[in-house]
Amino acid sequence: VQVLDSYNNPTYADGQAAAVYGQHPPLVNASCKPGEWQTYDIAFDAPKFEGDKLVKPGYVTVFQNGVLVQDHAEIWGETLHRQVGKYSPHGDMPLLLQNHGNPDRYRNIWVRRIKPVE
Predict the structure, then answer these.
(1) How far is residue 18 CA from its own chain's centroid?
(2) What's the whole-model pTM score?
């Protein structure tokens, strides 16, 4: 999920704030102006593999600043710039926060596992 200053900041659709980078633009630009904290509430369903076979892709639902911006969007594999990602079999992976040399600040990051509904 892209974290970027998208308040009055034009960028390509699948690269703006709250996009699934390189795959899905957000449903709406819900960014606050620079200097205000942005909030992201993200529900992620990890992909499932049986051996080397993908049996269920990953999905993400995102609220940015209280506004639904991704609604159960299917993840198409790794997120790449101007390339279609593909899945590689993997187990649980860590949460990663990336930047490109710009100052970022994060606070109050909560990670909570939710058991799937049978």
Answers:
(1) 6
(2) 0.90
What the block records as the tokens of 100 is 């490109």
How does pLDDT run across 44-62, given as a tens digit for each residue?
Answer: 999 999 999 999 999 999 9
| 70 in Cβ contact with 60 (< 8 Å) | yes
**Of how many residues is the chain composed?**
118
Structural tokens at position 24: 């899905």
Beta-bridge mates of residue 88: none
Three-class secondary structure of residue 90 per DSSP: coil
Q: Please write the tens of the pLDDT for every residue from 6-30.
A: 998 888 889 999 999 999 999 999 9
Positions of E strands within the chain: 40-45, 48-50, 53-56, 59-64, 67-74
β-pairing verdict for 59-64 and 40-45: antiparallel
Sheet holding 59-64, edge to edge: 40-45, 59-64, 67-74
Which candidate, 10, 36, 9, 13, places its Cα nearest to that of 23?
13
Is the sign of the CA dihedral 53, 93, 79, 19 positive or negative?
positive
What is the spatial distance between Cα 90 and Cα 116, in angstroms, rounded to a whole number? 19
